[in-house]
Amino acid sequence: MKKSILGIKVGMTQIFTEEGLVIPVTVIQAGPCTVVQKKTLDNDGYEALKVGFIDTTEKKLNKPDKGQFGKVKVQPKRYLRELKVPESQSYEIGQTIKVSDMFQNGDRVDISGISKGKGFQGNIKRHGQKGGPGTHGSMYHRRPGSMGSNTNPARVFKGKKLPGHMGLDKVTVQNLDVVRVDEEKNVLLIRGAVPGPKGGLLVIKGTVKV
Questions:
Q1: How far, in Å, CA of 159 to CA of 155, rounded?
Q2: Domain segments of the chain: what residues?
Q3: How many whole angstroms separate alpha carbon 1 and alpha carbon 204?
Q4: What is the three-class DSSP state of 65?
Q5: 4-131+159-206: CATH topology
Q6: Mean pLDDT per 10-residue run, the chain (210 residues)?
Q7: Rounded to an integer, what distance in angstroms lies between the CA atom of residue 159 and that of residue 140?
Q8: Whole-prediction pTM
Q9: Nearest by Cα to 206 from 180, 176, 171, 186
């Protein structure tokens, strides 16, 4: 099992090394997370922890979540996710997981998030296709073009690149460097960009690429 924790994307900035090199980094508020439920082999067939992240009020919870937090007497949380972490059975319900418990400077991580939604887009933006001639009255600039079907097959094959909804997909960026871990503020500095907008929920896991 890989180490993992939940986080919120704060934004991007840059830091400088002792040699004067600039490093672009993404700032992530990683944890603290609270253990809400333990999944066991006997009851669930696998081992994992259900953790809560970011305090909220009971008024904003739905009925299943109210029941979940009512059983364990834990401050209601905005996000609930299952994480498979090493030695998960050693954690107790109500215990806090901090970023320093999971990651150190120099670690490599995989980060998953929901990409920015871009609405309905055409082929050029959505799939990077080339546009038509821009001059000489071509009247064909950004349209998708012929579908290629005739009497046979008389249909458009599934998977054809066409205009449609773009974004709001789960995206994972692998093998990112942990530049710095701030234990006091529970902040991670990750080299490069990570998916999603500012304020978006992220799942940070130890990389699968060794």
A1: 12
A2: 4-131+159-206
A3: 13
A4: helix
A5: Elongation Factor Tu (Ef-tu); domain 3 (2.40.30)
A6: 86 89 92 84 84 84 81 82 80 83 87 93 92 87 83 86 93 91 88 91 86
A7: 23
A8: 0.81
A9: 176
